[in-house]
């Protein structure tokens, strides 16, 4: 009992208020010190990165396989090639620097490891600088590429917030009652889960190696309109047996590997057409033969004779060719500096658009139906429909009104048929909602398109008519009938994503500040001459053009290991002003500029410069065949898709579908996105050829392999 009383008597007196406050402050300071030591802030990690790109080390041979290296083991390099860096932080490792086991994905993790090895790296730094001093000139443009958006708001693009704030209701208790207040909250972006693991599988069922998710249906049939799967598309499209990379340009324009595009309906088509020949493993396209009996060159000469004002490669630069057959029309125009986009119709079961892309000719899949084509208004200098079987006069001429929307004011509409007499051919075609007396001439008169010339080409055995869209609204006052009605002034002509075709006539822009009042400069001057309707944006375009020209010349063409002789079809997955494509205009490539539907509408500017482009929502598959492109360029695509895609990994799956084996991807973005993205690419067995990072920006250069699960 005495011991108990003694223990109780030894209890301390309660602490005073001041003592408690002092104790809390001491504990808080201790917590802050401990937190600052054990949590590596981004500034600490980034401080370890080099401010230059002097050393780039060779990548591992297989990025999908983790390798272990013992401490003190030195990396072997090929002195004939510039060093490459896969560390993702801009830091090269010195000789003899120890390496820990690599982790998948790890741009920021590798940077953190580099801090620990900072001292050891410094020992080999001077030797590396001497050995690889010449490599800097080849890749110094990557620094500019990474710094391209430094200091910019990642949610702002061309002055528009592409990731707007959304209001949400928050319950707050005030004075004993509940009150709902609306607060603006910026959602987190679709950043990839760094801890996710992916087990890929091939697309099952009847989804073969030519599968287009939003076009093809089960059973080999096709949708009449674009219709995408309800669930995110997460399987990989298989490869054709004996697939081989296409020959380099220009060899591929005249021959391709038949196994790459083979299917039964194409085989049947080849047997009935003389302008393409199957010779052993190649599908050949004789240069003097085409779907036009006298050849495409004779056909072009005939058009020039009919309308001398059509100057190919000068005032006519961008052409839409409806109904992709042999694509010889666009191929011949290419020699005249005309870029022609072949529109492969979804009801073409022969898949000639895929053949055109394999040959290196621009093409895209679309449908002439109830929806607008994914192009802006008034952008094509000319539209061509050869051997045309499109029922332009059906549904009150709705399809022709869509041509009126996308054709530039003063632009040309060239149509040819095998029978020579368009009206008689139409009268012979019965449609449930069309009177037999209604023909093309009546329809053209109702929209005031002027027929410039009509000729039956004896050599090609086709009848050719050339129409011109009005360049002003004055002629509309002379219409005998007010049908079709004019579209309302508030109608958004450039709205073209899942937008129904309207049975109304769009007027020609009249105000000087409006796009379409003046014809662009002749090519190639229009590439770098910006019209007055751009206003203050002219300075932005000039800066953008110089920015991309420097990156292309200093880095992309020479410093990242791409053999450009094997590159023909390129896609810029998030184009703004077309600066990337313009900088490549002197190369033997073509670029499909994709403007995301949620981004500012800069696609008309791209066409004004004489380049190609299309609207698209990257939360859905793209309307093209598998293995269509040789190179994909994604500049801050993922960071601009916040609040858009439920599963952003579907974008990577789509990139894998549309990029051919051996094709390249250049991806620039935030480090927080590139880190897990590298993991995804490795899970697809893509080779990570080079990574580089500076501050919070980075770049990944990867190459797709032939691996399939």
From TrEMBL:
<dbReference type="InterPro" id="IPR029063">
    <property type="entry name" value="SAM-dependent_MTases_sf"/>
</dbReference>
<feature type="compositionally biased region" description="Acidic residues">
    <location>
        <begin position="142"/>
        <end position="172"/>
    </location>
</feature>
<keyword id="KW-0325">Glycoprotein</keyword>
<feature type="compositionally biased region" description="Basic and acidic residues">
    <location>
        <begin position="65"/>
        <end position="76"/>
    </location>
</feature>
<dbReference type="GO" id="GO:0005802">
    <property type="term" value="C:trans-Golgi network"/>
</dbReference>
<dbReference type="GO" id="GO:0016020">
    <property type="term" value="C:membrane"/>
</dbReference>
<feature type="compositionally biased region" description="Basic residues">
    <location>
        <begin position="177"/>
        <end position="188"/>
    </location>
</feature>
<feature type="region of interest" description="Disordered">
    <location>
        <begin position="55"/>
        <end position="188"/>
    </location>
</feature>
<keyword id="KW-0735">Signal-anchor</keyword>
<keyword id="KW-0808">Transferase</keyword>
<protein>
    <recommendedName>
        <fullName>Methyltransferase</fullName>
        <ecNumber>2.1.1.-</ecNumber>
    </recommendedName>
</protein>
<dbReference type="GO" id="GO:0032259">
    <property type="term" value="P:methylation"/>
</dbReference>
<comment type="similarity">
    <text>Belongs to the methyltransferase superfamily.</text>
</comment>
<keyword id="KW-0812">Transmembrane</keyword>
<dbReference type="InterPro" id="IPR004159">
    <property type="entry name" value="Put_SAM_MeTrfase"/>
</dbReference>
<dbReference type="Pfam" id="PF03141">
    <property type="entry name" value="Methyltransf_29"/>
</dbReference>
<feature type="compositionally biased region" description="Basic and acidic residues">
    <location>
        <begin position="96"/>
        <end position="123"/>
    </location>
</feature>
<dbReference type="GO" id="GO:0008168">
    <property type="term" value="F:methyltransferase activity"/>
</dbReference>
<feature type="transmembrane region" description="Helical">
    <location>
        <begin position="21"/>
        <end position="38"/>
    </location>
</feature>
<keyword id="KW-0472">Membrane</keyword>
<keyword id="KW-0489">Methyltransferase</keyword>
<feature type="compositionally biased region" description="Basic and acidic residues">
    <location>
        <begin position="132"/>
        <end position="141"/>
    </location>
</feature>
<keyword id="KW-1133">Transmembrane helix</keyword>
<dbReference type="GO" id="GO:0005768">
    <property type="term" value="C:endosome"/>
</dbReference>
């Amino acid at each position: 009992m005495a011991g108990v009383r003694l223990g109780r008597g030894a209890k301390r007196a309660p602490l005073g208020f001041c003592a408690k406050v002092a104790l809390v402050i001491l504990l808080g300071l201790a917590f802050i010190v401990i937190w600052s030591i054990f949590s590596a802030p981004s500034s600490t990690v980034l401080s370890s990165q080099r401010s230059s790109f002097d050393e780039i080390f060779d990548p591992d041979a297989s990025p999908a396989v983790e390798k272990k290296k013992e401490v003190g083991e030195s990396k072997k390099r090929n002195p004939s090639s510039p060093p490459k860096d896969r560390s993702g932080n801009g830091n090269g490792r010195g000789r003899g620097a120890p390496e820990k086991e690599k982790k998948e994905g790890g741009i920021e993790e590798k940077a953190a490891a580099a801090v620990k090895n900072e001292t050891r790296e410094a020992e080999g730094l001077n030797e590396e600088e001497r050995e690889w001093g010449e490599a800097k000139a080849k890749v110094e443009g990557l620094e500019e590429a990474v710094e391209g958006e430094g200091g910019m708001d990642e949610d702002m693009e061309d002055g528009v917030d592409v990731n707007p704030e959304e209001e949400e209701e928050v319950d707050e208790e005030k004075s004993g009652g509940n009150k709902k207040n609306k607060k603006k909250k910026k959602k987190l972006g679709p950043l990839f889960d760094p801890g996710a693991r992916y087990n890929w599988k091939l697309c099952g069922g009847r989804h073969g190696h030519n599968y287009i998710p939003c076009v093809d249906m089960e059973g080999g049939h096709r949708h009449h309109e674009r219709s995408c799967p309800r669930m995110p598309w997460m399987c990989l499209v298989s490869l054709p047996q004996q697939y081989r990379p296409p020959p380099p340009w220009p060899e591929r324009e005249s021959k391709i590997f038949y196994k790459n595009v083979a299917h039964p309906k194409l085989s049947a088509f080849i047997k009935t057409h003389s302008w393409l020949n199957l010779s052993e493993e190649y599908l050949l396209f004789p240069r003097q033969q085409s779907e036009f009996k006298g050849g495409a060159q004779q056909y072009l000469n005939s058009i020039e004779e009919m309308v001398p004002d059509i100057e190919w490669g000068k005032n006519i630069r961008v052409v839409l060719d409806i109904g992709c057959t042999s694509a010889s029309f666009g191929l011949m125009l290419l020699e005249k500096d005309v870029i022609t986009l072949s529109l492969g119709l979804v009801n073409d079961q022969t898949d000639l658009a895929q053949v055109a892309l394999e040959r290196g000719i621009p093409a895209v899949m679309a449908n002439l139906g109830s929806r607008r084509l994914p192009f802006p208004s008034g952008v094509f200098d000319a539209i061509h429909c050869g051997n045309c079987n499109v029922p332009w006069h059906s549904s009150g001429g709705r399809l022709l009104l869509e041509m009126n929307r996308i054709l530039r004011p003063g632009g040309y509409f060239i149509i040819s048929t095998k029978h020579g007499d368009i009206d008689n051919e139409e009268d012979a075609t019965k449609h449930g909602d069309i009177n037999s007396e209604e023909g093309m001439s009546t329809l053209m008169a109702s929209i005031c398109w002027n027929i410039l010339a009509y000729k039956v080409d004896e050599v090609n055995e086709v009848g050719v008519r050339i129409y011109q869209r009005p360049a002003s609204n004055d002629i509309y006052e002379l219409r005998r009938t007010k049908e079709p009605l004019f579209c309302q002034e508030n109608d958004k002509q450039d709205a073209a994503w899942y937008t129904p075709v309207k049975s109304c006539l769009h007027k020609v822009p009249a105000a000087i500040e409006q796009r379409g009042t003046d014809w662009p400069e002749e090519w190639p001057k229009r590439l770098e001459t910006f019209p007055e309707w751009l206003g203050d944006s002219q300075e932005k375009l000039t800066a953008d053009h110089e920015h991309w020209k420097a990156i292309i010349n200093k880095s992309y063409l020479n410093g990242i290991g791409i053999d450009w002789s094997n590159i023909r079809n390129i896609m810029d997955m998030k184009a703004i002003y077309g600066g990337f494509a313009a900088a490549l205009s002197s190369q033997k490539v073509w670029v499909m500029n994709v403007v995301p539907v949620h981004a500012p509408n800069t696609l008309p500017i791209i066409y004004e410069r004489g380049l190609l482009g299309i609207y698209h929502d990257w939360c859905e598959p793209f309307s093209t065949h598998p293995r269509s492109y040789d190179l994909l360029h994604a500049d801050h695509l993922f960071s601009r898709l916040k609040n858009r895609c439920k599963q952003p990994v579907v974008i990577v799956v789509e990139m894998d579908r549309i990029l051919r084996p051996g094709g390249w991807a250049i991806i620039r973005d935030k480090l927080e996105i590139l880190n897990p993205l590298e993991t995804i690419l490795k899970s697809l067995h893509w080779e990570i050829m080079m990574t580089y990072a500076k501050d919070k920006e980075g770049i990944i250069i990867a190459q797709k392999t032939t691996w399939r699960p």
